[in-house]
TrEMBL record:
This is DNA-directed RNA polymerase III subunit Rpc5. One of its GO terms (cellular component) is RNA polymerase III complex. It comes from the Eukaryota. One of its GO terms (biological process) is tRNA transcription by RNA polymerase III. Residues 198-225, 302-350 are annotated as: Disordered.
Length: 350
């Protein structure tokens, strides 16, 4: 690009501000960036919009996060379906489950119980709940919440590192993010109905087989036979096998790990402002160490650029050196001068 052209570009896009950049030191507290792909930014989950999270939980080892958002059951609310879903969730929890299904629970089946789950004050049917809906709401027999959740994407080698930026005057403070979570709606209430129906069919089949006319006693039943298991080894270099093994281990961890409850603070609370100023800004900017890059400009460009592949398979020519470029420029000047004088110039390349 010619100097005149570069000046035109600079005039079209002038520098309007400059900032001193600081990187905050790592601390014990972890920072996660929560994204809501299905929610407009103007309708954030907070007190101002009447959508404050009521429960926040985390599985740090498995890397799952969930939160519950309360809903108003007095307007634009399907009372019948909320009672059906509430009953399914109650049964899942009463049988020893956590009310969580899907990947966050390791896709594990619900725990079966010998009897129906107990409910304080006796059970309430769906018909009774419709006639006494407010009482059902007070007894937590109504499904009146929305669950959002997702898997934490940790930093990995080769992937970009996300940072949070906070401005203060002419300073830009960057804080490294420990993980990114895309919070999407979870349908545990729908899964609870499916699991309840499956458990009911399994219980009914067991009762029929044990109490039916063709049932046999435990002593006459066929005894289990010992099987010999042969241990096999797969090539660890197989990427697909490694990915499948990693996913299987993750689901096992998710099935065994219990939820850790977290305390939620709204963005307008004083505690949130205190954490913002103490955590997202460097404590001592005067004593902050200057960052020094270990890479030169050419090395950095090579690191972030994709390698060029010639489809023809021809060997790539080595680029000209600076000395060769100077000789070519000098030769071009001699050629132009010889053209004006009508002479001839010989160019020697080494």
């Amino acid at each position: 690009m010619s100097p005149s052209r570069a000046e035109d570009v600079e005039d079209d896009d002038p520098v309007i501000a400059e900032y001193n950049v600081f990187i905050t030191p790592r601390q014990l507290e972890q920072i996660y960036l929560l994204q809501y792909p299905n929610r407009n930014r103007s309708q954030a989950y907070n007190d101002r919009n009447g959508a404050r999270p009521t429960d926040f939980r985390l599985k740090p080892q498995a890397g799952f996060m969930e939160m519950d958002i309360g809903m108003n059951p007095s307007a634009n609310f399907n009372k019948f379906q909320s009672l059906v879903w509430g009953e399914a969730i109650r049964k899942a929890k009463g049988n020893g489950g956590s009310g969580t299904f899907g990947a966050a629970a390791g896709f594990a089946p619900t725990k079966g119980g010998k009897g129906r789950g107990k409910h304080e004050g006796g059970e309430m049917s769906v018909d009774q709940g419709l006639s006494r809906f407010q009482e059902a709401v007070n007894r937590d027999a109504v499904f009146q919440k929305q669950t959002l959740g997702g898997q934490i994407l940790q930093d990995e080698a080769g992937n970009p590192n996300y940072m949070l930026g906070a401005f203060r005057g002419d300073e830009l403070h960057l804080t490294r993010v420990d993980g990114v979570v895309q919070m999407r709606p979870q349908f545990h209430h729908v899964d609870a109905i499916t699991h309840a129906e499956t458990a009911a069919r399994r219980t009914e089949a067991a009762e029929n087989s044990s109490g039916g006319p063709g049932a046999t006693s435990a002593s006459t039943q066929k005894q289990p036979q010992a099987l010999a298991l042969a241990q096999t080894y797969k090539d660890n270099r197989d990427v697909e096998n490694l990915e499948a093994l990693r996913a299987k281990n993750l689901l096992l961890i998710a099935a065994e790990e219990k939820w850790t409850k977290l305390e939620y603070f709204d963005e307008d609370e004083e505690a949130s402002y205190e954490t913002y100023h103490s955590r997202l800004f460097h404590g001592d900017t005067k004593e902050a160490k200057h960052l020094k890059s270990q890479m030169k400009n050419e090395e950095y460009l090579d690191a972030i650029s994709a390698p060029r592949v010639d489809p023809s398979g021809r060997k790539k020519k080595r680029p000209l050196t600076k000395k060769q470029m100077e000789r070519i420029e000098a030769a071009e000047d001699d050629v132009e001068g010889a053209g004006e004088m009508g002479g001839e110039v010989e160019v020697e390349m080494s």
